[in-house]
Design brief:
The complex is a heterodimer of chains A (130) and B (263). The longest helix of chain A has 32 residues. Chain A is elongated. Chain A has 130 residues and is mainly alpha-helical. With 263 residues, chain B is mainly alpha-helical. Chain B has one domain. In chain B, 75% of the residues lie in helices and 0% in strands. In chain B, α1 packs parallel to α10, α2 runs antiparallel to α3 and α8 runs antiparallel to α9. Chain B starts with a helix and ends with a helix. About 3% of the residues of chain B have low confidence. Classes of the chains: A mainly alpha (130), B mainly alpha (263).
Chain lengths: 130, 263
Amino acid sequence: MTRSPTDATDEAARDDGGLEQAVARLLTVGTYAAVALLAVGVVGLLASGRSPLGGGPSLDMGRLATDLVGLRPEGFLWLGLLAVIATPAARVTLSLVGYLRRREPGMAMVSALILAIITLSIIVASMSEA
Amino acid sequence: MLAGGAAAGVFGSLLGLGGGILIVPLLTLGFGLPLREAVGVSLVSVIVTSGASAGVFLQRRVANLRLGMTLELFTAAGALIGGLVAFLLSEQLLAALFALLLVYVAITMIRPRDEPADEVTDAAPPASAIERSLSGPGYRVTNLGRGAAGSVGAGVISALLGVGGGLVKVPVMHLLMGVPLRVATATSNLMIGVTASASAVIYLLRGEIDPYVAGPTAIGVFLGATAGSRTAHRIDVRFLRVLFVVVLLYTAFQMIRRAMDIG
C-alpha cells in the first residue's frame, strides 16, 4: 500500500529458485519415504492375513517403537501416516528458515503463522480428546 | 481397497482432480466405513498425491511458492475450523453436504470449459506492494483480500469432506486473482498438503484414522495417480468426462439415500 518497490527489487524478491528447489526436494523425499513405510506396512498386513476392515489399532506413541522393532505392520503403517502428515509441516519449517535467511520478514511471518495454525490444531484436538 | 484407491487415483489425475472426491464414497458406500473415518483416510491420501506432484511442479517452477504459502495461511485456518466443525455435525448432514459437492462437480464437468478470461490488462486495479511481491513472470496477482476469503472456504470444505479443495482454489486464483490456469492448478496442488494436514491431525488425534484402511488406500491412490499422470496424454478425456459425470451423479444419489436412511 505504501511506496511500491521498484522493478529491480521485484525481480530480486522473485528469485526463489534455490528455496523452491530445496522445498521440492524435501516434498519428494518426504512423500516417497512415507509411501515406502506404508508399503512395508501394507505388505506385512497382507502377509499376516488380517482384514483391513477388522479395525486397526489406535495410535499409541509408546508402542510405536516396540512395534517397529518387532517388525509389526501397524508400526510401519503408523510411522508412514505420521510421515505423511509431518511432511507439509516440515516444508513450511524449511521455508521459514529460508525466508529468514533472505531477510524477508513478510514471508517468514506467513510461514510462522502457518506453523502456529498447525500447532493450534494439534493442541485443540488433543485437548478435546482428553 | 488397494485397487479402489488406484482407480480413484487414475481417474483423479486424468481429470485434474484430487482423488478425494472418489475415495470418500468408495470407503463409505463400498466398504461401509463411517463417513468421518472415510474423510480422515481420504485426507491422508490426498496429502500423499499432492506431495508427489507438488515436488515436480515446484522443480519445474510452475507452482508459485509465495502465493501458495500466503493463501495456505487462510486454507489452513479454514481447515482447522472445518476439522472441528466436522465433529459437531451428524453423519447425515455430512453425507448431504457431500452429495451437494458431487452434484456441483458433475455440473462443472458438463459445462463446456470456460475460455480463459481475457488476459489481465492495464484495466486491472493497481496492485499493492504485497500483491506485487506475490506475482510471477507474466502475471500480476490482484484481489488478494477476496482470494484469502475464498481460501478460508476452500479449507473448510477440504476438512469437512476430505477433498483437496482445488475446485474452489483454482477458480479463485484463476478468475479472481488473475493467475494463469496452469500456475493456479500447480499452486493449488502445492497448498493441499498443508491444508489437509492441518485437519488430518485433528482426525488422527481423535482416533478417526484407521491405519489398516489408510495404508492400502493411500498406496493405491499414489500408484493410481502415478500411472494416471503418465498415460494422461494417450486417453480421450471427453469420454472419460462423461463416464465420470455418470459416476458422480450415481454416487450423489447413493449419498443422498444414506443421508436420509441413517437415524
